[in-house]
Every structure is written in structure tokens, then in C-alpha cells.
Amino acid sequence: MLAAPNAFAWSHLGHWLVGDLAQTQLTPAAQQQVTALLQGEPDPTLAGVASWADGLRSSDPDLGKKTSKWHYIDLDPQHCEYRPPVDCPGNDCVIEAIDAQRKILADTTQTPEARRVALKFVVHFIGDVHQPLHAGSRQDAEGHDDAGGNKYQISLRTATPPDFQGAKRRVPGEPIPTNLHTVWDYYELESAMLAPEKYAAKLQQDGIPKLTPQTLGTSVDWAVESCKGVNAQGVYPADSDGQPQHKIGGTYLDAKRAYAEERVRLAAARLAEVLNETLK
């Protein structure tokens, strides 16, 4: 089966939504600093820079390679426990990346450029860690890690336009060869078939969570929470007998979309709170 290129958490739409919703929750002090730090960006908003880290593979290959492991952590969904030496060797994982970049952002002795880059990383990685398959990864029948669903092949029937080049050559109605990670990165939200602004308005109406210190949590808590959702929310398709399914369509996408939207809204609330505290 053909495979789509390696995808990124939530695709451009998902990250845009997290940034856009978070911006509406900023305090005046945080908003002032965000505006100053993003001055000169093509789109100087949290939504506008939310996908920047995904573009580093082409815009800055060296930095893209250096930070490639910062987008995810592969916790075992059967336990969802964070063991730093095992799960994040060399501090190269999304949990430690969020904490490290937040420290740079908070440090006013750093250069404005260093803090700008840190802000863009924080916006992106908090979005990443709320995508279940960026925090949980199963083993296949042979005991090999499936890389957060990247190696779990899917034949997908959907009216949503494919996310890979060559889509125009696809026969209409033909299933799309992809993988489960891409289903969650791209198709789950895109299949709502809403323009970004309308989707943001819908999620805003659904409600941005009001956080307590307990529900705010830490980067570790967010990853563990996402990992637990892999099994609790049935992210891996299965039949009534619990057997893995590799052919899915609109029924699966529709059933899981509310959970995906919940993760986006929660990511936005936590991002806003982190920026409000860090930039106060």
C-alpha cells in the first residue's frame, strides 16, 4: 500500500485552530508581548506561526533535523507512564522541549529572536502533545513500535481531499492509502469540511475550558492524558470483537471528531494559560 508522507500533528488546520483560540484568551500583558515578539512575521498571530515548526524540514533543514524528535513522545498506551531516561533520552521529546522553550521565552535576558523562536516552538508543541498519537504508540504483532500509528496502514474512504501530491490522479471514490497517524493529523479535522474561521467560531461556541491548577497540569500530565486517550477513546479502529481494522471511512471520522475537537480546545486553553503566566 502506498503511504502518504510523514505527517505532523493536527496539520495546518489543527495548529491554526489552537493558536487562534488561544489568542482570544490572552491577558493584555501577554498579548502585548506576543505582538512585540511576532513583529515582522508574515502573519504575526499565534495562529499564523502555529505551523512554523513543521516547515523547518524545508526552510531550515539543520534545525528541522535537530528538533525532529521534539514533536512527540512514544509512551506505552497500556501504562502511559513517563520514564525520562527510557522515553526521552537526551531530553529529545515533546515534554522536555515544551519546558525548555518555555524557560527561554520567560527569560528577558535572551535576545528577542531567541524568545521569538521559543514562542513559536511553545505554540506548536503544546498543540502537538494534545494529539493522542503524538503521545502514545502501540507495538505490532511482531513487537515493533508502530511510531504513533505511522506504520498502521489505513485504507480510508472519505470525501475529504487527500493530503498528498498526486491526488488529482486519484480515481474519484477510490479509497485513500494512508496511515492512522495521518488520519488523526489531517483527516479527522479536515473532514468537518469547515473553513478555518468558521471552525474556530464553532469551537469557541462549544466552549474553551476554564482551567484550574489541576486541569492545567504540566507537560508530563498532557502527554500522559493524550496517551490514555489512545485506548479510552478507541483511536485504533477495531471491530466488535476487538480485532484491528484497517479499512475505515466517514463513520469512524464522525465518531471520533468530537474527541479531536475537545483536544484542540483544551490545547488552546492550556497554551493561553502558559503564555499568560510566562509573559506576565
UniProtKB/TrEMBL annotation:
Pfam families for the chain: S1-P1_nuclease
Keywords per UniProt: Disulfide bond, Endonuclease, Glycoprotein, Hydrolase, Metal-binding, Nuclease
Domain of life: Bacteria
Entry's transmembrane regions: none
Xref: SUPFAM superfamilies: Phospholipase C/P1 nuclease (SSF48537)
CDD domains attached to this UniProt entry: S1-P1_nuclease
UniProt keyword Glycoprotein, yes or no: yes
UniProt keyword Nuclease present: yes
Stored InterPro entries: PLipase_C/P1_nuclease_dom_sf, S1/P1nuclease
Full protein name: S1/P1 nuclease
Upper lineage: Bacteria, Pseudomonadati, Pseudomonadota, Betaproteobacteria, Burkholderiales
